[in-house]
Amino acid sequence: MKSILIYSILLFSALHASAQAKREIFFADVTMYVEGDKYYLTGSKGGSGGPQGFAFLESKDLKTWAVPARSNDSLGMILTKGDHTFGTRGFWAPQILKEKGTYYLTYTADEQTAVAESKSLLGPYRQKEVGPIDGSEKNIDSYIFKDTDGKHYLYCVRFDKGNYLYVAEFDMKTGKINPQTLKRCFDQTEPWEATPNYKSAPIMEGPTVLKLKNKYYLFYSANHFQNIDYAIGYAVADSPYGPWVKYKNNPIVHRSIVGENGSGHGDLFEGIDKQLYYVYHIHNSSDKVSPRRTRIVPVVKQWAKKAGVYTFSVKGNEVIVPVLAEK
Known about the structure:
The active site is at residues 29, 205. This is Beta-xylosidase. Residues 1-19 form the signal peptide. The protein is mainly beta and 327 residues long. The chain has one domain: Glycosyl hydrolase domain, family 43 (Tachylectin-2, Chain A). It is 8% helix and 43% strand. It contains 2 helices and 23 strands. The chain has helices spanning 2-23, 255-258, and strands at residues 28-35, 38-44, 53-55, 57-59, 64-65, 77-80, 92-99, 102-109, 112-118, 139-146, 152-159, 163-171, 176-177, 183-184, 204-212, 215-222, 231-237, 245-246, 264-270, 276-282, 293-304, 309-314, 323-324. The strands form 7 sheets. Strands 10, 11, 12, 13 and 14 form a 5-stranded antiparallel β-sheet that branches. Strands 15-16-17-18 form a 4-stranded antiparallel β-sheet, with no helix packed on it. Strands 19-20-21-22 form a 4-stranded antiparallel β-sheet, with no helix packed on it. A hairpin with a 3-residue loop joins strand 11 (152-159) and strand 12 (163-171). The longest helix is centred in the N-terminal third of the chain and has 22 residues, at 2-23. The radius of gyration is 20 Å and the shape is globular.
């Protein structure tokens, strides 16, 4: 009887784990938007089927998610290919900000960055004039940062025998950068940014920027996304343009910390509970990259008085596995 009971418990646990895995969220290059008492999640859908573009999920607790009840689309689509939007394929890396009553969604398609807008958080997001932000060169992974003086800056990745982070002043009215201000943030300099587990050209991508006590913090991912050591670190500067000083204890999110391969490319956000979190994606399994799974981890922010900066780390033993609500 004892052995039967143990077997039953193990079988139940296995079935429960399998059921939860099927309900997991498979957004990559993830971003989070917080409004009111709800969280809104979107990202690259990968090969999940359905219309190309971006879909929203909402939650009150970061754990259980569903298509927003107020959504005009049964799939939660907020931006769709061909609906007054730039791009034919490769819809990646969205990010949302609100400015003077209008919501803006910046994203990648056709290996170009673009920005669309909506009066509703739930969309649909469309462009007044269909086109990329800067069609002069390929650029991906856009992030618009608003400084305390009201100026906006576009951080993105440009290709130059690798993926490098760049910044330029951005005009919200025209949706364009000032090319004269374009500047590379930094080069690949640290061992963790180029591990031998997957050979590639230099890759630094997935930027998120925030400002605290007149210091700028640029969070980014490094290594190829197929590398099990895809990871997240950050750098600090006195200006939106740098020069940037990389944190000596990078990476702050890595498989050795959160326990899962390919942990990277996400977004830093403050929760409803005032706790900082980082949302990111991981590899599908130990031997398979896609479709990538979504994860959320609490972030610890501490003031380093001697250095005059904040330091960031994560609670790797408190990773949240977001799942879809049972129907």
